[in-house]
Amino acid sequence: MTPPHLTSLYPFTLADHLKKHFDVYGLFYDIRGTGYRSCLEIVTKDSCSNISRLIHQRPDAIVTMMNPGSSRPLKEIYEPHIVNSFAEADKLLMKGQLIPTHPDPTQYQVERIMLKMNWNHVRVINLADLRQAKSNLFAKSIHEKTNSYSLFSPARRRTLDSLFQSDTVICGWGMDIKLTPLINPALDYLKQKGIRIVGQPVTENSIYYRHPSPMIKKKKVEWLEEIEAQLG
Fold it and tell me: What pLDDT digit, counting tens, does each position of 74-93 carry?
């Protein structure tokens, strides 16, 4: 249950309060010198007794965005898992090889929704695992790499099926048309599974959903209010 003092701060609960209420865990791995982070688990501190089992628990909702951006482990000195393929990384993921992760402004937005909805657990499954903070460079990489760095690729379907245990997904992958080759398979999967899509589309029936954490605070609040209204 959300503490009353946090509820009263909504919609824009400050990061210092959120850090005291939530923990974040992820799997970091490298393939041939390139850094990746697989799905992210955001949980309330009092709801997580076994980190390795998190990946097998049903979350209250899924959030799907573009990629992990500049996400990094909580510890400054950390050696990521070195693997030769995404299949190897997925095996580590399903074994629950998660570590504490440094929170960021986008995750804070998700946590604010969690507070309002009284959720204990949200799983972030992005369009791609590639860790790249600059969105233009990430978009460029779509044409340079196999789409196996996406959990929505056919090669990783078994892992995705294991992870996507929720009836609701909040989409917030942004408006870059270069992402279309990654967006379409994700939407096909969601529709095939009959999963409810929540988000702030750029226009009606658009496949592009606004990012949860725009630069302007007013826009962040608007996103929160829109998502809350859709979730009911």
Answer: 887 888 899 999 999 999 99
